[in-house]
């Protein structure tokens, strides 16, 4: 699945997130960040290896409301949600293999984490 941009594909993203088999994998970044620019191609490549997941690239300056009032200080900051519940939220070294390992280790039955933004479906609908 190609990477979705919430500024251009909000309704597509919201519709796909209603499918309980679709995991949200969001990368919070900034256009001015050199690390983010380098990470983008690897993130896109990973989206092709996990076609059932919805990969979203969120520029925090273009779409700050998708952070749910959380401040991002380091990039990349990643969010993985399953059915609107956070299974991972945090900064990660910019090595795509780290994200890949996390995606392989998460199980939908794992307990949700209390930290991170609200359900992305709700945030994107309010935006």
Question: TL;DR of this structure?
Answer:
The protein is α+β, with helices and mostly antiparallel strands. The protein has four helices and four strands.
How would you explain this protein's 3D organization?
35% of the residues lie in helices and 20% in strands. With 127 residues, it is α+β, with helices and mostly antiparallel strands. It has one domain: Glutaredoxin, CATH 3.40.30.10. It has a four-stranded mixed sheet, with helices on both faces. β1, α2 and β2 form a beta-alpha-beta unit. The longest helix is centred in the N-terminal third of the chain and has 16 residues. The chain is globular and about 35 Å long. 28% of the residues are buried.
Provide tags for this entry:
127 residues, Glutaredoxin, 4 helices
Instruction: Choose one word for the global shape.
Output: globular
- Mean pLDDT, nearest integer? 93
Poorly predicted parts? none
- Report the CATH topology name: Glutaredoxin
Quickly give the structural class. Answer: alpha+beta
In total, the number of domains comes to 1
Helicity range: 25-40%
Number of helices: 4
How large is the share of residues in beta strands?
15-25%
What is the CATH domain class? Alpha Beta
Known CATH architecture: 3-Layer(aba) Sandwich
What order do the SSEs take from the amino end to the carboxyl end, as H and E?
Answer: HEHEEEHH
**How would you name the CATH homologous superfamily?**
Glutaredoxin
């Amino acid at each position: 699945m190609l990477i979705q941009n919430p500024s251009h594909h909000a309704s597509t993203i919201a519709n796909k997130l209603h499918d309980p088999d679709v995991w949200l994998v969001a990368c919070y970044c900034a256009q001015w960040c050199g690390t983010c620019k380098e990470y983008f191609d690897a993130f896109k490549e990973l989206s092709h290896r996990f076609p059932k997941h919805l990969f979203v690239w969120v520029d925090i300056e273009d779409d700050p409301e998708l952070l749910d009032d959380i401040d991002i200080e380091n990039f990349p900051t990643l969010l993985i949600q399953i059915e609107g519940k956070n299974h991972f939220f945090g900064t990660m070294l910019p090595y795509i293999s780290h994200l890949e390992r996390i995606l392989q280790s998460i199980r939908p039955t794992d307990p949700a984490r209390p930290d991170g933004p609200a359900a992305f479906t709700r945030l994107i609908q309010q935006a």
